[in-house]
Design brief:
EC 4.2.1.51, 6-stranded mixed sheet, prephenate dehydratase, 36% strand, alpha/beta, 9 helices, 5-stranded mixed sheet, 15 strands, prephenate dehydratase activity
Length: 277
């Protein structure tokens, strides 16, 4: 055991925040890409990986659903991080000094109202924590970063304005990935089962495949489709349902799904987070 948890991004990224929230006793290991974070676990440099899958404002994280099935890792937990965006500047600067703000393009788009109100121009950075590091290193008192308070602590920046996001409920959902699956029943808010599948090439296959969940009273909280290997005729679906595969009604629904589909793969069985409510 390395007692490390891998994430994509610089120290101070929101994924780093998710690691500290879910596993405060583990060392967070920054990685350049999602693939690098997955490989860190597969190679034994880390025990777990923390991967973002969707944001309440901007939807799913690009590429992550195609990475999950072929990663070889299993989902063992989910974590929700409230994305509080802060304007971070060099020590001693004031909000009135700032003419430009740097961050990832997604975060820049989430603070349009604040930036417009204060006549602050946007600079696109590689990512949120990386922008905080760059602002700290360059030492320009007129340029600030949009990032987490954790990033401000790490790179020695002051919080000039706190929680400036346009959407007050802006939240990102993360999945905690492990080399080993855990099908044990745990948690206080029920279980979630995540899986991927492809439908058979027959008329109304998707309708028939999903019918078992409706007739057995299983709540499907997510269903997303994406192309496989760039083909317009090969579509894979990612789904989350409430329940455990050993629940009688879930088992019946999965049996019916199996009849109308190919390549059904369970990605994980894990406790629903309290934040789902």
């Amino acid at each position: 055991m390395t007692n490390r948890i891998a994430f994509q991004g610089e120290p101070g990224a929101y994924s780093h925040e998710a690691c500290r929230k879910a596993r405060p006793d583990m060392e967070a290991l920054p990685c350049r890409t999602f693939e690098d974070a997955i490989e860190a676990v597969k190679s034994g440099r880390a025990d777990l990986a923390m991967l973002p899958v969707e944001n309440s404002t901007y939807g799913r994280v690009a590429d992550i659903h195609t990475l999950l099935p072929r990663s070889g890792l299993k989902i063992i937990e989910e974590a929700f991080v409230r994305v509080h965006i802060n304007l971070l500047g060099l020590p001693g600067t004031q909000l009135s000094d700032i003419t430009h703000a740097m961050s990832h393009t997604v975060l820049l788009g989430q603070c349009k109202e604040f930036l417009h109100a204060h006549d602050i121009r946007r600079i696109t950075g590689a990512d949120t924590a990386g922008s905080a590091r760059q602002v700290s290193e360059e030492g320009n008192p007129t340029t600030a970063a949009l990032a987490s308070e954790l990033a401000g602590e790490i790179y020695g920046l002051d919080v000039l304005a706190r929680h400036i996001e346009d959407q007050s409920n802006n939240t990102t959902r993360f999945l905690l990935m492990s080399p080993e699956a855990d099908f044990s029943r745990r948690g206080k808010h029920g279980m979630i089962t995540s899986f991927v599948f492809q439908v058979r090439n027959i008329p109304a296959a998707l309708y028939k495949a999903l019918g078992g969940f409706a007739t057995n009273g299983i709540n499907m909280t997510k269903l997303e489709s994406y192309m496989v290997a760039g083909s317009f005729t090969a579509t894979q679906f990612y789904a989350d349902i409430e329940g455990h595969p050993e629940d009688p009604m879930v088992k019946l629904a999965l049996d019916e799904l199996d009849y109308f589909t190919t390549n059904v793969t369970i990605l994980g069985v894990y406790p629903a987070a309290a934040e789902r409510a």
